[in-house]
Amino acid sequence: MPPNWQIIIINNYPYYLIIQFKPKKRFIMKTEKIFEQVIKQIKVFESAGDRKVFSRLSHFRRSVYGIRICYEIMRLYFDSNINKIECTKEYLTKNMSDLASRATIINFINDEISKGSLVTQVSSKDKRVKIIQPSGELIDEFTMWLDMIDKAA
Length: 153
Known about the structure:
The chain has 153 residues and is α+β, with helices and mostly antiparallel strands. 50% of the residues lie in helices and 14% in strands. It has one domain (31-152): Winged helix-like DNA-binding domain superfamily/Winged helix DNA-binding domain (Arc Repressor Mutant, subunit A, Orthogonal Bundle). It has helices at 31-48, 55-60, 64-78, 89-95, 102-115, 136-152; strands at residues 5-10, 13-18, 118-122, 130-134. It has a two-stranded antiparallel sheet. A two-stranded antiparallel sheet has the order 3-4. The longest helix is centred in the N-terminal third of the chain and has 18 residues, at 31-48. The chain starts with a strand and ends with a helix.
């Protein structure tokens, strides 16, 4: 019997099946390269946790949803598109709903506003809507952290 054939018995009758094996292509990285990448990521992760240097940024790093909110606020703030999306509590709660509840996200944003990491401005389109923006200190810390990542790379 050829090696790619297999016999299966169903109700005392033998059935011959041809099995085809398709090898999967895998990306193989050398262990030294993986080790270097892991060490680099650890340094980057720990650098943002330095509360003396990054006091505002460290508040966002306390949770997964916190750092994701920070990234989204920065992305929208630095977006140069003329028709850019306004960063509001409603926008953030909709986009972060898989990470935390609506109440948790709103409480987190309110805490960061009271600490001075985030500031609000009234929307020019609708005076009832408050646009959330990073404070000058948070922008400075964030750009300094990005510079540290570039130097580590």
